[in-house]
Request: fold
Amino acid sequence: MKLQRLVRRVCEGFIALCLLVMLVVIFVNVVLRYGWGTGILISEELARLLFVWLVSISAAMAFHEGKHLGFDMLTSRLQGRPALVMWWVSRGLMALVLYYLITGAWEQVLMGLNSRSPVMGYPLALTAGGIFAMGVSMAVLLALQAWAALRAGGLPDTEAPSHDSAQEEQT
Reply:
């Protein structure tokens, strides 16, 4: 649990740092453009790179917390064996999508090693690296969820559908 908290704090700190740098660079660039007719050349590339990493880390954190976008209109009403089967089917589909995401991002990383951004000159592999890191993180979390389900002999406690919680959210 200490490692989990540490990783969460590091991710939150990195997200906050990305937001701060993006805010400062873009604000200063806007002021310079409107006030003096000039600007910071690297602002657009830097903001884009930081935004990709910010979104990637945030998506992995949301997946870990079970807050990622999901559609459970059918599965939330299932109980017992059908719920378990659908849980495994959904995890299998997630694994397939993550496989394609990871392999595609890895190809982009390899191609980006020899390509440089036009202004800052950083390897474009850094941008694709954010997507790759997100995919790998989600795949590890998905494997941990599957392991927890196997050890529990059913749905993990955090994933068990509950009609009461769905009704409480509607009120």
Residues 2-36 form the longest helix (35 residues).
